[in-house]
């Protein structure tokens, strides 16, 4: 069974800092890994999708890396802004299964 | 192209009542997934459906919960005789095919009083 863990559970940083969110998973036989953003009371917004054959993906100030062998992914946010405040969820899709396994999220607060 | 639509967005039910949650997938998507998010937790997979078929219901509680995706109309997640522990946000996602990227709806927040 796939277990997904996100550390830290919460993070508070001053505006402008670079930060790293961590995601680990127990079964390395993954199909892809996806990072989502969730604002309070809202749905999920897809940020980055990394296929199992890829090492990283970049979008603007976001960079996600994947190390399948060690069961880890990181989401790097450069020059953080108050608008980045949200909960960030990591989700892993196994092999040929269609369901995602989600971590519990990292709640980020960027202070002005 | 409208995104995944869910209604109602908020639903309040008393213990013992039935809850019906609806999900309209994106246009052209024939695969629907339901997830549940308990307070302060991540999303947990419940069920995966294609038109008129349940493909994977390994995350569905054995009793009181059922899901369907008819040939016409939205997918329905039905919870009978709700209990306080059913209070959660229920999210629907859709995709155009197997293993494609899933697009999530805004969720239905169910409160059981």
- Biggest sheet layout of chain A: 6 strands, mixed
- Contiguous runs where pLDDT drops below 50 for at least 5 residues of chain B: none
Radius of gyration of chain B: 13 Å
End-to-end C-alpha gap of chain B: 37 Å
Fraction of residues in H or I helices of chain B: under 10%
> Which strand-content bin applies to the residues of chain B?
over 45%
Structural class of chain A: mainly beta
State the helix count of chain B.
0
Number of DSSP E strands of chain A? 11
Mean pLDDT figure of chain A: 93
Give the overall form of chain A.
globular
Structure write-up:
The complex is a heterodimer of chains A (112) and B (113). In chain A, 0% of the residues lie in helices and 60% in strands. With 112 residues, chain A is mostly beta strands. In chain A, strands 2, 4, 5, 9, 10 and 11 form a 6-stranded mixed beta sheet that branches. In chain A, strand 4 and strand 5 (44-51) form a beta hairpin. Chain B has 113 residues and is mostly beta strands. Helix content of chain B is 0%, strand content 50%. Chain B has no helices and 11 strands. In chain B, strands 2, 4, 5, 6, 9, 10 and 11 form a 7-stranded mixed beta sheet that branches. A 4-stranded antiparallel beta sheet of chain B has the order 1-3-8-7, with no helix packed on it. At the A-B interface, strand 4, strand 5, strand 9 and strand 10 of A face strand 4, strand 5 and strand 10 of B.
């Amino acid at each position: 069974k796939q277990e997904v863990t996100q550390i830290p559970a919460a993070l508070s940083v001053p505006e402008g800092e670079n930060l790293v969110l961590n995601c680990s998973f127990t079964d390395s036989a993954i199909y892809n890994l996806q990072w989502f953003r969730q604002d309070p009371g809202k749905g999920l917004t897809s940020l980055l999708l990394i296929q199992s054959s890829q090492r990283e993906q970049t979008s603007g100030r976001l960079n996600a890396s994947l190390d399948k062998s060690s069961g880890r992914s990181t989401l790097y946010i450069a020059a953080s802004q108050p608008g980045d405040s949200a909960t960030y969820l990591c989700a892993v899709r196994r092999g040929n299964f269609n369901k995602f396994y989600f971590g519990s999220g990292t709640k980020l607060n960027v202070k002005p | 192209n409208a995104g995944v639509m869910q209604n109602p967005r908020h639903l309040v039910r008393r213990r013992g009542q039935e809850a019906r949650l609806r999900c309209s997938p994106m246009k052209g998507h024939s695969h629907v997934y339901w997830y549940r998010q308990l307070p302060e937790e991540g999303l947990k997979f419940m069920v995966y459906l294609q038109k008129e078929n349940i493909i994977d219901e390994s995350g569905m509680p054995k009793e009181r919960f059922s899901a369907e995706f008819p040939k016409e109309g939205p997918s329905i997640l039905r919870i009978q005789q709700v209990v306080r522990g059913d209070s959660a946000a229920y999210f629907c996602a859709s995709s155009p095919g197997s293993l494609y990227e899933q697009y999530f709806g805004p969720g239905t927040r169910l409160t059981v009083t």
